[in-house]
Design goal:
This protein is an alpha+beta fold. It is built from two helices and five strands; from the N terminus they run E-H-E-E-E-H-E.
Length: 92
């Protein structure tokens, strides 16, 4: 099972409620807005960035994210990367 980083942008002027719905939908797929560091500290990700494992390949994960995002809004951008390692910095 691989880990994935997913960025979803709702284009135009999305509402807070639309992003909250997107966050819920992505969480239902197992993609969260937080990660756990090596020191077991929970780290918040930047806005509308998600991280999590999947048994599917990168194209299938992209398709799932697109499907979920389009339930919230049609005009979207989606980027998916299979993630081997990560590091963070700042007040996330």
């Amino acid at each position: 099972m691989a880990d994935f980083t997913i960025r979803v942008e709702l284009r135009g002027n999305p509402t807070v409620q639309q992003y909250e719905k997107l966050h819920q939908e992505m969480a239902s797929l197992g993609f969260l807005r937080t990660v756990v560091s090596d020191s077991q500290k929970q780290v918040n990700l930047p806005h509308a960035l998600y991280y999590g494992p999947s048994q599917y390949d990168v194209a299938a994960v992209r398709n799932m994210a697109v499907s979920v995002a389009q339930r919230v809004q049609q005009d979207i951008l989606v980027f998916v990367a299979e993630t081997l390692r990560w590091a963070s910095h700042g007040g996330m």
